[in-house]
Amino acid sequence: MAKSNARGNISTVNILIGFFGDTEDLQLCLGLVKRWELKMNSFTYKCLLQAYLRSRDSSKAFDVYCEIRRGGHKLDVFAYNMLIDALAKDEKIDQACQVFEDMKRKHCRGDEYSYTIMIRTMGRIGKYSKAVDLFNEMITEGLTLNVVGYNTLMQVLAKGKMVDKAIQVFSKMVETGCRPNEYTYSLVLNLLVAEGQLVKLDGIVEMSKRYMTQGIYSYLVRTLSKLGHVSEAHRLFCDMWSFPVKGERDSYMSMLESLCGAGKTVEAIEMLSKIHEKGVVTDTMMYNTVFSALGKQKQVSHIHDLFEKMKKDGPSPDIFTYNILISSFGRVGEVDEAIKIFEELESSDCKPDIVSYNSLINCLGKNGDVDEAHVRFKEMQEKGLNPDVVTYSTLMECFGKTERVEMAYRLFEEMLVKGCQPNIVTYNILLDCLEKSGRTAEAVDMYTRMKQQGLTPDSITYSVLERLQSGSHGKSRIRRKNPITGWVVSPL
Predict the structure, then answer these.
(1) Terminal-to-terminal C-alpha distance of the chain
(2) DSSP code of 31?
């Protein structure tokens, strides 16, 4: 068209503006307007404005807007919203506010999206009261926020730590029939937790009872559990239990972990026995969570009963189950029971792994049967399992406590030959053994080897070194420089 000197009209320019995207092309279009001596109309300006916004050039877009104002042209609410949003995102707050006020003065009624953009913008610059004023203005104008708008305002209020105002807005949201979603509840919950006002959560749940779903309850229970608010999580969980619908496995798992973490094992066992009533299948991980908590609290009588129930009703124990049980029985000195569990493991579809042997060796050694622990150590090697640093360290400690230092030292040399690197725990055990047996020179040599390996001494290392320095046990000592490490150590 340009080559043939054909003259287009303003519609041609409008089409070209809508087609092109970058600033250079748009300048070409404006050149055609001048060459063809055309007059731009409202639609041309609108197309040009939107084209600059598409190319993310809010400055050029604002310049076009200023021309529109001078020429008395009009924009629709969609164009206004695009411009306000672009200016706000580019941190041109004053210009965004100017366009918003112009829009209202030009009798172009802003919609929910217009106000949502401005509320978000006010929140971004910390003008929380202004954001609330905009919300009230919306209500006066007869506009109603949708869930996105309400969440935007709640986000602003949360940033401003305005708990009471956030609750008022939440109440208004429910009152107007706008259903809160998971994000709404997350904003409220995080605000209440951050401001130490979690006691108000019950009121939030109560006022939105008709909108509470299994998914919302599950989210709240999971989040409260992760944040360590066990009592609140349990209370909501009990409320959730009344729902006549199938439960969500993750929420029940979170509640179990929360109860176990708080030491409420009786409640955890009761819950585990009733989960099936909500259509949730109890799995091995759930049982293992409870077994682990019982073991840490040395409640082995409950472990007996629960393990028998598991074997009878399912699910089947896995390797983690057996390892937890061996460790738990060993912790309370029930060696025979630990061995029995280990033998059950050997005859099951699962087979003992390094952790299984480590737990059994620890159980045997710490309860006085070091020789049997050593036999099991040899057995695991015969079965093709390579002892790790935990295995060696555990057995060395057992030998050290029975004053069989040579055996402990021999194991240390063996682990080095096998390529198993000792850690700080290993060295602490050996240093303690050598110090207690009066082998000071060897202890100093061992400390040197530890430093050469690049390990950093800890408080246990220094307490052993202090005993080496003093040359006696149980005596009062003063603070002085250690000739081995150069550190000043405190009396024990």
Answers:
(1) 96
(2) H
Q: Cis omega (within 30 of 0) on the bond before 317?
A: no
| Half-sphere exposure at residue 121, Cβ-oriented, CA atoms within 13 angstroms | 23
Please write the tens of the pLDDT for every residue from 317-338: 999 999 999 999 999 999 999 9
Compute the mean pLDDT over every residue in the chain, rounded to the nearest whole number.
Answer: 86
Instruction: Give, in order, the Cα–Cα distances in Å from 390 to each of 163, 180, 187, 376, 397.
Output: 51, 51, 45, 14, 10
Q: In the structure encoding, which two tokens stand for residue 72, read together?
A: 């008395």
pTM over 0.90: no
Q: What share of the chain is helix, strand, coil (3-state, %, to 5)?
A: 70, 0, 30
Enclosing H/E stretch for 364: helix 354-366
* Stronger pLDDT, 248 or 150, i.e. the higher one: 150
| Pairwise CA distance, residues 177 & 174, whole Å | 5
